[in-house]
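The protein record quoted in full:

***
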Amino acid sequence: MAHITIDTGSPTLRMTTSIHVISPVDSGALSDYTLYLLHGAGDNASTWHRLTTVELYAAQYGCTVIMPEVNRSYYTDMEYGLDYFYYITQELPAFCSRLFNLNEDPEHTFVAGLSMGGYGALKAALTYPDRYAKAVSLSGVTDMQQRLRDPKMEPGMAREMQAVFGTELLVRPEQDLYALAAQRIKDGVKLPALLCCCGTEDPFIGMNREFADHMRSTPFDFKYVEGPGTHDWLFWEKHLKTAFEFLFDEKK
């Protein structure tokens, strides 16, 4: 196993950014599985590795884990800012594939994340269903419009959201998980399998239950898990195991 920290210039972001990578194979060998693992708001590219046992799961399943840095962008091409969604779905996979000799077969490619990263993971999979076999959201923001209308949102965060979504805080169809899911069903394309997990004391539990109820009525292979816990690393560490078992259930 190797834990690699990369500082590299990004043409999309027009600045230097960080990528953390867990690689289970020797240099030059083909990595069989790839997981893009997305951080939450307030975290960075290092947080998954510092605060969880993700490296143990990567070793167990022979999976390269790629953890990019997106600041507080909500994995979105920002209204007043940088194109982070393009970065994680276009530039990042191409860069990492060249560097780590990744298996680019969609059946061996996953995306997952927590909180803000849960939204990013679902959005990536629903926007490009032909690129990912499965996606996982842990305590994710599953209804962005509901999140933007939260009356308890701090003024500072509201200004951040305006930079991402515009001054009117309106969510476009390509940013709305419900609209994306409906469009993919209409397209008649092969749909990725999805897992959402949320703690019963999590502030996002309501929107996760609503999203789960909706997705169960669709053709998606959708699984929902909830249990004791709130919006913290104790819950995410516990359900990191749930996530890897879901991603690699065929391998078991």
